[in-house]
Every structure is written in C-alpha cells, then in structure tokens.
UniProtKB/TrEMBL annotation, chains A, B:
Official protein name in the record: Proline--tRNA ligase
Top-level EC class: ligase
Alphabetical list of HAMAP family matching this protein: Pro_tRNA_synth_type1 (MF_01569)
Location in or out of the cell: Cytoplasm
UniProt-listed PANTHER family: MITOCHONDRIAL RIBOSOME PROTEIN L39/PROLYL-TRNA LIGASE FAMILY MEMBER, PROLINE--TRNA LIGASE
Classification via NCBIfam families: PRK09194.1, proS_fam_II
CDD domains xrefs: ProRS-INS, ProRS_anticodon_short, ProRS_core_prok
Classification via InterPro entries: aa-tRNA-synt_IIb (IPR002314), aa-tRNA-synth_II (IPR006195), aa-tRNA-synth_II/BPL/LPL (IPR045864), Anticodon-bd (IPR004154), Anticodon-bd_dom_sf (IPR036621), Pro-tRNA-ligase_IIa (IPR002316), Pro-tRNA-synth_IIa_bac-type (IPR004500), Pro-tRNA-Synthase_IIa_type1 (IPR023717)
SUPFAM superfamilies for this protein: Class II aaRS ABD-related, Class II aaRS and biotin synthetases, YbaK/ProRS associated domain
Reaction(s) the record says it catalyses: tRNA(Pro) + L-proline + ATP = L-prolyl-tRNA(Pro) + AMP + diphosphate
GO molecular function annotation: proline-tRNA ligase activity
Recorded family membership: Belongs to the class-II aminoacyl-tRNA synthetase family. ProS type 1 subfamily.
Length: 577, 577
C-alpha cells in the first residue's frame, strides 16, 4: 500500500467524550469514526485490524473442527419467545416491528437461531458432535454506550455453538474450544488469562472468560501467581480469614458514635481497626405469593459485598432488592447507618453472615439506635448464631488461597467467553436427536463467544504509550512502514524506498510506503500514533553511507542497519514482534 | 474438507413456497435455511459460495483503487432526515427506535453515512479522488419477500461511493467502476450484460445495470445482437415504427363494438389487426396548488405502456395516478373501455400520443360512447394534433434499432448497478472541499452496488439442469468432489482417495472427499444437486485397471482417466470450468 493512494487522516486531539486510551487513539489515528452513540464506522485501517483478528479466529475455529455459517442479523421474535429470552432480556435487546407489525430483534447473540437450525438439521447421533460458528454484526442497546469499541452498541462477535450427545461429550467440546481460545489469544499476541466466570444471563453451569490483562480493564481478576488458579472476582471464592471462632474477651458495650453511619467513621471514633467492624445490609426478596421476605447480610467493615454471590443465595433465585426504609423500620426500629444483628425480634429477618464474620469475636456493629454502636459483640453470647453462613464478599489482594499461597488481583478486559450450556436452550426449543436406541434425546450445548471488535480496543489498552499505539505484529494495521525523507526531491531516496517496498511485498510483508512527502516530524508522529511494529527511515544522508534506520515501535532506540541487510533484518525482527 | 467432518444435509423435496429454481436447489442442497420471510441462514456451503463471490469483488475493487471500510448496519435517522430519504423512502426502510426512543434505520444502502464521513474526512482537493466501499449486511423490508436469495429482506451487498472534484473526474471514477464490474462478472464465470438503466430512487443522472442473463430473470433487457447497445426495457428508447404520417384513406366511421372494452376484442370484432387500434389511458397529476390535471395517453393497441417513461413526462415529476371514474366522466361523459381522443372539449385534458400513434392514419379508437368505437380516425382531419408526442411504450422484439439493425429482448437478473450521482447527496449534506483557489466546492459522487448474495442465486438461475446446480468453478462451493465407492470396505479405494485428496489440496484445489461411505446412488445424486464442477469416482474395479472416472458436471459423459494422470487432468480441466 502507498500512503498517497490510501486514506490517512490523523487528528491532533481526541474527542472530549473519549474517556479511555483505546477510544482516544483509535479516533486520533482515524481507525474509527462515530456515527451515533456506540455505533462506529471502521475506517480503512480499523477494518484492516478487524479483518486480521477475524482471520486468526477463523483459522483456529476451523482447525478445532468448527464449521462456519452465517446467521441473520435480524431475527424473528418467535424464537426468542420460545426460549423465554424475549421476556427475560431487558432493554439491551433492540426490538423491531417490520412493515406487517411482526416482532423482530437485532441479534445480541444467536442461541435461539442456532438451536432452531439444530433441531431441523440434526436427526441422528451420527451427525454429532458438531460445532457451528459465525462472525457477524451484533447489537446490544447499552444504556450508556461509551469507551469506543470497548462498550459499543453495534459490534462484531464470533459466536460458536456446539451440539453433543451427552454431558461428557459436551465437556470435550468445551475443552476443545477452551484450547482453541488459548491458541487464538496467543496468536493475537496479547497477554491474557483464562478465568473461571459467572454464567450470567446466557445461563448454563460452567464458564470461563478470556481476559486481556490491562490496568484500564473493567473486570477484576483474582489469581494465584504461583498456580493456575484464576477467576473473575464475581465468582472467586473468598475464604474465611479466621481459622476458627475468635474467643470472647470483651464485654458487650454500647458506644456513642455520633454521625457515624459508615464503618470507616465508627472505627476511627472508637480507635479500632476497620477489620473489627461488621456492616449490615438489609435486602428483601419478593416471593410469588405472600409478603416480602427480609434478609440481614453481615460483612466485615473492610470487605465489599459481592452482588453475584448474593444473587445465588438460597431464596434469591428470582432476584432481590434493597429493603425499603419502612421494611427496615418494621424490624430494626432504627434508620440505616446504625443497624446491627443484636436484639432482633425472632423470625422477623434471616441473618446471613459472611464466612469471616461468622468466626469473628469482640466485633463492632450498629446498636439499632441512631448515634450508637455496640463493641465486644460475640456470637452465641450476645446474639444467636447466624441463620446461614455464606461467602458474601469480594476477594481482596492478600487473601490466602485455600489451595495454597496467596491471592492477587489484576484488571482485565473480557474478550472471550466459553459457556457449558447443557440443555437450557435445546430443551426450551425441543431440539432432540435419535440416540443409538432409536429414542429421542435432548442435545447438549455449549456456546463460545469472542468479541472481535473489542479485541482491537483491548489490544491498545494493553499496548500503548504516550505517543500512541504499539500493535502486536499479528494484528497491526501495517507490519512495516517505510518513511522516506524528502521522497519528492531525492531520486536516491525514492529508488531505495521503492526497491525495499517491492522486496517486502514480495515476501508477503504488510508494508506501507509513506510517499506523501510530508515533513519527517509529521510523518514520524503519525506512525508512532498508528503504531506499526517497525518503521524504516530512508534519508539521503544515511543512504550515502549505505545505512537505513530501523525503529521497532516497542524499542527506545533505532538501529542503523546496512541498506543491503535491511530486508533480512526486517524479516527476522518481525518474528519477535 | 472431509464430508464426514462437514455438515451435508440435502433434501429430496424443496419447500412448497420455493417458486424459483435457485430457491429450490439452494434449499435442497442445504445451502440456505429460512429463519423468517426473506431472512435466511447461510449454511456452511452457502456461506462458502458467498465468501468466494466476496473475495473476487474485493480483489477487483482494490485493484481499481477503491478503499474498504465498514459502515454500521444500524444508522441514525438524523442523517436520513438530512438527505430527505427518511420521508421519501417507503415502508421498505426498516425503522427502529432505540431504548431512548431515538430513531434509527437498518441500512438498505449507505449514501448518507458515507457522505457524512466524506464531509468530515475530506478537506482538500489533494485528497481526491477517493472511492470507499464496504461489503455489509443490508435490509429492505420487501412487502412480499420471495424467490429465496433473489428477493430477500436481509442480504449482503457491496456498495462503493466515489468522491470527485468535478463532473469530468466523477465520470472517470464511474468508468473505472464500470470496467471493474466487467472484470468482476467475467471472473465470476457468469454470462452477463451491462445495460443502460433508470436511476430510480437512488437518484443521479446516469446509470448502468449489470444483468446476469437468465430466462427466469425479472428484468427485460433490450439489446441489439449486432452492436453494443443494451438497455433495461424501463429505459430503452422505443422508436416510432412509421417513418412518416400515414395518409388518410378511410372515412371516419362509428362502429358498434358491443362488450369490447379491450383493443384485442375490438380488433377481432372489426376484423382488423390489433396494430390498427389505439388504446386510451387517462391519468391525473396533482399539482401543489389548484385542481388535478388530466392527461390522455394514446398507445397502439399491441403495445405496452412504460410506467417509468410516463413518470418522466413534463408535469409528472411529483408522481401521477389513474384518473378517477368521476374525473374521466367529467371530460369523456363515458365510462372506461370506450374512451378516445375524438370530440373532446378543448383544454379539458392534455393529449399525449406515443411516437408511433402520432404517425398512424385510419386508426381505431373509442367513440366515447359505451359499445362503440371509431374507425378511419385521422389526426388533423378528425381531431386536433396531439398536444405532445412522446415515447410512452415498451420496446418489443423486432423493433428497429434507430442506430441500425433490429432490437431483441432477453431476460436478466440485476446483480450490479453503477450510478452517476452528481451532487444529490453531497449538496443535501453540505459535503464540500477546498479547491485549489481556496474556495469550497461541492463533492461530485457516484455509487456502485453489487448484490453479493443475489449473485449466488442468479448463478444458479443461469446454470442448472433438472438434476441440480452447475457452478462456475470460481464460485463453486467445492471445485472437486472425490467419490470413493465402498471406502469403508476397500483399502485400495481409501488409499487412492486419500492420496488424490492430499495431492489436490497441496495444489490449492478446493476439494471435498466424500468419506461418508454412503451408497453410490445417494452420493452421486447429492453431488449432482450440489453441482461441484468436477466429480472423481474411485472404485475397486476401476482401480484394478488403474482407472478413475472423472465427470465434469457440465458434460454428458464421464472420462476414464489413468489414475497416474488424474491429478494433471483435473488441474487442466478445472481451467476451463
């Protein structure tokens, strides 16, 4: 490619709304242009990156035996009604009426359509296992789209769906996809981690996320630096930090804590560590029949409640909410901020203690009286044992790993997700096949997503500096840029650049010759922003000495290389980028 | 590809709703599966064809200097309001409200978005010319989707948009695309014709359609077998068939024609050729102010009215309609069926005669009295000369070509369309650039579409027989199929098949080995349906003689080829398929 025949249009400033570095840099480099909130045009260089990612994903999916097809973007509501997701999915599902007032959706994923295909196409165990995938435009109507391609509304996703005879076979399909994903993210040149994850609205019983490690990621990953263990903080087991119940040493005491509705203030007022305090969260669930049920959750003052874990508590399956002030008052006769588990009327509320809280002694909690807390509180002595002990909190860095060692936390960007679905969709849509005994059996499914467009943003979040992007070679918009200085004036420069350009093209290198004849400062700034892995500078002075300058975007220093060795050097250097 | 690891699922019967052969065969071969009316999943083999078409289109677009990008499927209404198409486009435009009740459309084409990009990206004449294209999912909410991929609602289209400094440069861009389209359809292996065409709702001043020739096509192409001339019948000039006005030989006579509201019946009753009759069509236009205006169109009885030509008559720019019975009665005092141009009150209606009608003498027309026609009617003598003479009719086969020779008609399927747009969109969206003199000028545009998914259906309409599809090699789902007979029982067959399979793969041939071990009859029927250009049969008996059978799908007879020569034979034979 010659820059004069391409469309390069870099910007000095990122738009004010670009909050994250990938959004800023992709916009400045002219890789994406916003058309509406969360909806972008991939400009030529942006599309090149997208296509390179797609090609790697496709190759590895095919290698793993998955078969590509293409399901439609616009899907009929009937299938979504059959699965139940028409009702379950919130406003993120973009719904349409066609000219005949029939309901359709713009697909956010394709479980329904693929299950419909499977029930029509798969008749016999002889056709199994099979894994279909497509790479297609998706839409999720995010309430607040932002962060450019990180949380867009229209995006490109690869989604695969495996069909198997039974759970064992389905597990093998899952493992094959897990292995394929490891190969894909390795080939993409990204630092990543496969982490155990919650299954969320897709459903199913087991899942792993593939997270690109980046400080700007929205997800928190709990991992053990000394083992293979890694899990999304949503799912990561938080251990009890006290091997056994702490003995009661103090007497129960009511302490004045004026204007101290938060544990942090209480700890300061009482001169105690935050880890001696216990905070109270009052939740409510609404059964199908009868009155709301109230729950008191107790978590150590320095810990955070994990909403995903709470949602999995027995009785919380249909959702939960914060209790209203009236509901709280009916049990505690006290406003929030000073609530505690001591002296509650029997059976009025179910008390659930976090694992650590259940082993605490001499702790501090609200006195159920505004402006007062209790200290020296002890289970059994001052209040009944909790009704339930459960893991209610997020892991924090430094927590012991029950399997040995210590847990650490890092941030990541979810770019892939594999789910063991079981029969959730196949049962709803009655997707069966005939087993060897001639009897129908329900297909076992897995589903496997990769956020193709998101990967391009995640790669930048992980690989950039203050001058611009630093692409891994595999998905760089160009592998090599040739920067001739004064190409319009010097025949020697033009000839050297053209000759190297053709030689690199002949070797299959994705090279661009910047023949715009702009000032070196502008040209270098453009290519540091765009982040081509290798830049070759050809100038009159160097060429007289038989030298070209080769600068890897990742390196601090350029290398002076003999012109005759440049091709070989570039080919070798690219191998490590 | 090995069939055992692929998804082959052919059907004996096509669905009842499949009216055209491409829909029937693609469904039977398992290339597409219907998800909703006009919405299909491309099954693996269907997608392979689509991707091969896309690849050829992409290569030739790139070769022509066009630059690929990717515009979104879901587009904001604001841009469509700026161009005016939000109001102009009918119910075929699928409109959506997002969760915030903002209006969006599912793109049927992308003139608005690309013009928005151009006005933001193109600042200077130095950036011109430029031609952007994308290959993307489109949606047109057809009232009655049918014919499978021929008239689907969701489909894949390549659309390109050129931007130029002035009309001369824009014409050069148009010509470059025209040439690229010639290369594309030649490489696809299709018999096609570029025809002058109407610009329709896209607008602009000049356009050509690329039509795949097929008896089942919906379009009629007027062409001259002895010249380059070809035009869609919508646009093709219909000549006057009479060099000069015929002399009046008969007297005007009122003839009883009971129950003869059609020219065909009149001609029969009067014992005259249909070509002596003239039919009357009464139309109305509604000006912005004032009463409706009435028009009487006169067309020879054996000719058909051309609605596109009528729509271009002076005064018809804002549309027209059939006159109401009341309007007709106000002028003719007679019901439709017996209307004619003789004896009309002056200025009550504007009379427009087709070119041929204007030269007719002694013609027959309605007498404006139920049950009666006039014969021996002559312009000037019996009625005033027509207010306007115009081309109102469709060409018929055998019409003389004014440029010499005779016109013929064939049917075609429109698969590509190039438009010279001028400044229609760039002016509406104020897309300007700075000229050399520093003053802003409006961009000149062209747009260029190719119906990627439709091509797969058109290829079948053109190339099939009663056993199935006959793919051109360039876009066949597989180039070669190997059919081993009894692969499960014979080591010799298995080894010969495997060896040829690997040899063909090594040569880059897209080959499938049908290792399903099915009965030969089933296997052959499948592959005649699917239409792979070459089928190689390997059986024990032949192999003992050192022979394999190679059958080109287009040929009647299979060839017996020495096993040792099979590879070379296949490679050579493929060149001509």
């Amino acid at each position: 490619m010659r820059a004069s025949q391409y469309h390069l249009n870099t910007l000095k400033e990122a738009p004010a709304e670009a909050e994250v570095v990938s959004h800023q840099l992709m916009t400045r480099a002219g890789m994406i242009r916003k058309i509406a909130g969360g909806v972008y045009t991939y400009m030529p260089m942006g599309l090149k990156v997208l296509r390179k990612i797609e090609a790697i994903v496709r190759e590895e999916m095919n290698r793993a035996g998955a078969i590509e097809l293409l399901m439609p973007v616009i899907q009929p509501a009937e299938l979504w009604q059959e699965s139940g997701r028409w009702e379950q999915y919130g406003p993120e599902l973009l719904r349409i009426k066609d000219r005949h007032q029939r309901d359709f959706v713009v697909q956010p994923t394709s479980e329904e359509v693929i299950t419909d295909i499977a029930r029509n196409e798969i008749h016999s165990w002889r056709q199994l296992p099979v894994n279909f995938y497509h790479i297609q435009t998706k839409f999720r109507d995010e309430r607040r789209p932002r962060f450019g391609l990180m949380r867009g509304r229209e995006f490109t996703m690869k989604d695969a769906y495996s069909f198997d005879r039974d759970e064992t076979a389905a597990q093998a399909s899952y493992d094959a996809m897990y292995a394929a994903y490891q190969r894909i993210f390795t080939r993409l040149g990204l630092t990543f981690r496969a982490v155990a994850a919650d299954t969320g609205s897709i459903g199913g019983s087991r899942s792993h996320e593939f997270q690109v490690i980046a400080d700007t990621g929205e997800d928190l990953i709990v991992y053990n630096p000394d083992s293979e263990y890694a899990a999304n903080i949503e799912l990561a087991d938080a251990p009890c930090l006290l091997a056994e119940r702490e003995p009661a040493r103090e007497a129960l005491e009511k302490r004045a804590t004026p204007d101290a509705p938060k544990c942090e203030i209480v700890a300061e007022q009482l001169g105690l560590p935050l880890s001696r305090t216990v905070k109270a969260v009052v939740l409510a669930t609404d059964p199908a029949e009868g009155p709301a049920r109230l729950w008191l959750l107790l978590i150590r003052g320095d810990h955070e409640t994990n909403e995903i874990k709470v949602g999995k508590l027995p009785g919380f399956g249909d959702g939960y909410r914060l209790a209203t002030e009236a509901e709280i008052d009916s049990v505690f006769h006290c406003a929030p901020g000073y609530l505690g588990p001591v002296g509650l009327p029997p059976k009025a509320i179910t008390v659930i203690a976090d694992r650590t809280v259940a082993h605490m002694g001499d702790f501090v909690c609200g006195a159920n009286e505004a402006g007062y807390h209790l200290s020296g509180v002890n289970w059994g002595r001052d209040l009944p044992e909790p009704d339930l002990v459960a893991d209610l909190r997020n892991v924090v860095a430094g927590d012991p790993d029950p399997r040995g060692g210590t847990l650490a936390i890092q941030r990541g960007i979810e770019v892939g997700h594999v789910f063991f679905l079981g029969d959730k969709y196949s049962r709803a849509l009655n997707a069966t096949f005939l087993e060897t005994d001639g009897k129908p059996a329900v297909l076992q499914m897995g589903c496997y997503g990769i956020g193709v467009s998101r990967i391009s943003a995640a790669a930048i979040e992980q690989n950039h500096d203050d001058r611009g992007m630093i692409w891994p070679r595999a998905i760089a918009p160009f592998e090599v840029v040739l920067c001739p200085i004064g190409i319009g004036k010097s025949d020697a420069v033009r000839e050297a650049a053209e000759s190297l350009y053709l030689a690199l093209q002949a070797q299959g290198v994705d090279v661009i010759l910047d023949d715009r004849d702009t000032r070196p400062g502008i040209m270098f700034a453009d290519w540091e922003l765009i982040g081509a892995p290798l830049r070759v500078t050809l100038g009159d002075r160097g060429l007289k000495e038989g030298i070209v300058e080769i600068q890897a975007r990742r390196d601090d220093q350029a290398q002076r290389i003999a012109q005759a060795d440049a091709l070989a050097y570039i080919l070798e250097r690219l191998e490590s980028l």
